[in-house]
Amino acid sequence: MKLDKPVTGGPCWTELGTSDLEGAKRFYTRLFGWRPETDPRPEAGGYTIAHLGEAPVAALSPLYQESQPVAWNVSFAVADADAAAAKAEAVGATVLVGPMDVFDVGRFSVVLDPTGAAFQMWQARTFPGAGVFNAPGSLGWVELMTRAPERAVAFYTAVFGWSVNASEHYTQWGVDGADFGGMVTMDEKFPHEVPPHWLPYFAVADVDDTAAAATAAHGTILMEPTSVPEGPRLAVLRDPQGAVFGVYDASYAR
Question: I want to staple 160 with a disulfide (CB 3.0 to 4.6 A). Which of 9, 46, 114, 208 is the partner?
Fold first, then answer.
């Protein structure tokens, strides 16, 4: 992505809700070299922040509700969580959680967009989000998978004011023209039971080696390493608990 730090309207964080926190720690540490630190406070519920060096890059957490799927979630930075949630509702979204405070670090809500994809809004206080983007082992791109692309464009431009860079084959989202993600239309190749969702992509030094490491650690390759014309080499993987994420060649400059 063309962003190198969290900015209002852009992706600022990604976190995994998992059925096996300790297993997820082992898997992603092996894959990305993360250093996970679990918040020891009982009220934190096992929330774990993964670091590269001293920089926070992502979070891992247990499932907090029976209905919560094992999945990666993407958070977007907002100046006012309450106002942003109200605006999202006004243009067709459903607010699933919050807005609510997280200790003194920020305020957030979980939102279901009108096409059925969940995401989070984050109003930073002491914690702005990821300390690094685009470096190997860190978040580098986010992608909306949806069956209603026109409705998605109308919604996200209304809520966040994103710029839209659309070509015949791919639509990219941006903040003031700085692209940070894209959109894929879910066609008949996607099983009916797979819901719309946001997919995070992590930068890696070698896509093929990372895919091989994922399978060796009992993960699954959903899309084999592929070189996109005029784009990066990438792959889509699934961790042992079932969460899907992407990886791409960190040397590619978008």
Answer: 9
> Rounded distance, CA 122 to CA 84, Å?
10
Q: How far apart are the C-alpha atoms of 249 and 23, rounded to whole Å?
A: 25
Per-residue pLDDT tens over the stretch 84-120: 999 999 999 999 998 999 999 999 999 999 999 999 9
CA distances from 117 to 91, 185, 228, 234, 239 (A): 14, 12, 25, 22, 20
Cβ-Cβ contacts under 8 Å for 184 (sequence gap 6 or more): 143, 144, 145, 146, 170
Nearest to 175 by CA among 12, 11, 9: 9
Residue with tokens 């791109």: 141
Q: 149-160 vs 81-90: helix axis angle to the nearest 10? A: 140
Question: CA–CA separation, 93 vs 158, rounded Å?
Answer: 11
**Interacting residues of 70 by C-beta distance below 8 A, sequence separation 6+:** 17, 18, 19, 63, 241, 242, 243
**DSSP classification of residue 44:** G
Pairwise CA distance, residues 133 & 52, whole Å? 11
Report, as ranges of residue numbers, the positions in the chain whose pLDDT lies below 70.
253-254
Angle at 195 between CA 192 and CA 197, to 5 degrees: 145
Q: CA–CA distance from 141 to each of 40, 41, 82, 188, 254 (Å)?
A: 30, 31, 26, 24, 10
